[in-house]
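[User]
Protein folding is very new to me. Any chance you could explain this protein sequence and its structure tokens? I have pasted everything here:
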Amino acid sequence: MTTECDQDPSGLSASLPDPAGELAALRRQLGRAELARRTLRACQEAVRQARDEISLLTAVCRLAVGHGYRLAWAGLRQEDPEHRVRPVASAGFTPGYVDSLSITWDDTALGQGPTGTAIRTDRPTICRDIATDPTFAPWRQAALDHGYGSSIALPLRHQGQVLGALNVYAAVPDAFDSFEVSLLEDLADLVALGLAALRQKEVTRRAQEDWRTVFETTGHPILILDRHQRILAANRAAQETLGFAEAAMLGQRCHHLFHGSNEPPAGCPFLAMTRTDGFASAELAIETRGGFHLISCTPLFDHQGQLDRVIHISTDISERKRAEEERQRLQAQLYQSQKMESIGQLAGGVAHDFNNLLTAIIGYGELSLERLPAGDPQRADLEEILAAAGRAAQLTRSLLAFSRKQELHPQPVDLGELVRRLEKFLVRIIGEDIRLATRLTLEPLPILADPTQMDQVLLNLAANARDAMPRGGQLTITTGVVLVDPPEAARQDLPQAGPHALLSVTDNGAGMDAATRARIFEPFFTTKGKDQGTGLGLAIVYGIVRQHQGAIEVASEPGAGTSFRILLPLGQPAPAGKAIAKPAPLAAYAGGETILVVEDDAAVRKLTRRVLEEGGYRVLEAADGSAGLACFQARHQDIDLLLLDVVMPGMNGWEMLAEAKAIDPQVRFLFTSGYPADHIHDRGILGDGVSFLPKPVSPMDLLRRIRQLLDS
């Protein structure tokens, strides 16, 4: 019972401080602050230890429940058409509740609750009384059945993007005061930061995984280098290309492994890259493994702009280089073929007029020689004239043969006899200050060859040796027999193995270097000065030897002379007596028949008439096909043979023969021309099996052929 003395009439006692109460309140605040500190530290530790998003969110939900709440769950925002919120972690009293939730973050009934609103508005959303809050209506009954009285949804935001929401439920209404809200917001911010870090870590992990997959599976050798060209990583292709495991390559410099050198090679793209701070590439020969690689270097810079790493990619371009070289070779071959075709066309055109001139020279020379008695001193001069004319004719045939414009006429000949027969002329070719030495086998060396073409081979090789010895020297010609085995035959592209005749031509002149040897047989290649050589001599030799199914090699070094070694298939010996048979006199082929000569070249026509008349024949002549046909129409019953030039202005010889056969199908004929045979056949002027005598033609050959046709 309170007495009057106990009462405070002034009311001052009511305003006096209560030390005990204030202390209790301070203790409660300190306790809550310590709890908040421990909770946030625990959350930080959970973020640090989290392996993935689920483990982090589960740990945080457990922290919230440990703080005294009945339920905590976390949902992530989905970017699907329905804008759903997907629960991914929970803790506390949750039997079936979280699994039954259907929540969105759009502005619909399922998005009006605390979770959807927090995600959509990026603000914490509190439901103070689940039993009465209309926004909680879709989930109210289930929440009340689980004993939930109030809830709060906190957005998980990072750099302006809401990732989801942390939802905390209490057992009583209005359980979240300002302190709790502030603590939970801090907790949510830590969780969002952890989520963002985990996602970035996952992005980085996947990027590294993807990069490593590409790095390892690409077919190109890739190295990662530091700024000193030391290898930091090497993919599988690089290990296979260089023949080392990655562990053995680490720390080594790339040029040591690729090129086997202590210094970068010339044109190193790494050095070019460091000069420009940009991408660089170069095609380099790989010394340690052979072949060619395209090396590219791409710089990677650190945050300060300094060179940090270099991506070194190597692409094997050996096949491409080989294909390019093959293309260039084929292109050069095409150019060479076109060049030789041009030579052939030029030679064919020149040959027509040149052979007509030679026909007159040889014809008149032989007629003059026929009249001179044996022992007449003028015979030697005429023989030299005829020999020179023969060599001129042979030179034309050689050029045509190399350009495939002249058909060869192989026959059994003795290689040693060919050398002996030409020895006197070779001495004149090489000059007095060069000594000619021959080392010929005593046994015959029968080969199947065109004698004039083989003469050309010896003449050209002798001329080449002469030019290599301007101060004199020695030229040695050797013959022999070589047994060629199958590997050697394959190496020299010989049709078959077995015994071969050897022809060796050696000089002790200036010699050649490797670059010159590689091109020595190319047409128009010459090391001589202007107007001192055509570059065709050795090319013609090569062509003739190959056409005779032989092989030719050259051995030479600067200052050590040059040796050409020719192999030709051995054949059967020439029939006895045939190789040295003396020519019959002109009278042996004489006759009395009438021959119509149709020739547009006046000099050749005049010579032909004289040769035939001296052979006893009666001669009619015409300057072109039309005149010849008119003559034949008038006197065909008297004419025994037509001697026709093939190519003439207007009506050619073939066209005239067709008209003549319409008059007399049995008429005999002989074609002659200064054009090469293929020029005539390609134009369809002559068919196979037609009697044809190429110019230049000697009187003896002309009379012999005419006699054969008339007697057949």
